[in-house]
Specification:
8 strands, two-stranded antiparallel sheet, D-tyrosyl-trna(Tyr) Deacylase, Chain: A, 2 helices, alpha/beta, 6-stranded mixed sheet
Length: about 150
């Protein structure tokens, strides 16, 4: 499982010219689910994201978490994070989880984040989405479940 997380001033997702979700200050997570990813790994990943101290304290140090600042969390399914670009010029998606299993883990990610008391919203799994954000900092991190 791979995630790109961005601290944002605001973010929104639009499907077919209709805004379906939006947040103010918080974290936008792009979530890539790979074959073999488990619910336990997902729970650890979401906990890492909501507890990661990436928001500034009164001294300007990154010392507060999403939970600490009562920020919002937008999670967008992003299967292209599972791409293998090591060979040739066309990405291979053979390591991406099949849609049915990926959707189940994605839905669980939304529930787990909410379970930490974080206002959470998501996109439309498998849809052509337009994601807009104002990156705050910019502050962007890449997380891999194999490394946490």
């Amino acid at each position: 499982m791979k995630c790109v997380i961005q601290r944002v001033k605001h973010a929104s997702v639009t499907v077919q010219d209709r805004k379906i979700a939006g947040i103010d200050s918080g974290v936008l997570t792009l979530l890539g689910i790979e074959k073999g990813d488990t619910e336990l790994e997902l729970k650890k990943m979401i906990q890492k994201i909501v507890e990661l101290r990436i928001f500034e304290d009164e001294h300007g140090k990154m010392n507060r978490s999403l939970i600490d600042v009562a920020g919002a969390h937008m999670i967008i399914s992003q299967f292209t994070l599972a791409a293998d670009c090591t060979s040739g010029r066309r990405p291979s998606f053979t390591t991406a989880e099949v849609p049915e299993a990926a959707r189940a883990l994605y839905d669980k990610a939304l529930q787990v984040s909410e379970g930490f008391g974080v206002r959470t919203c998501g996109g439309a799994f498998g849809a052509d989405m337009k994601v807009e954000l104002l990156n705050d900092g910019p502050v962007t991190f890449i997380l891999d479940s194999k490394l946490i």
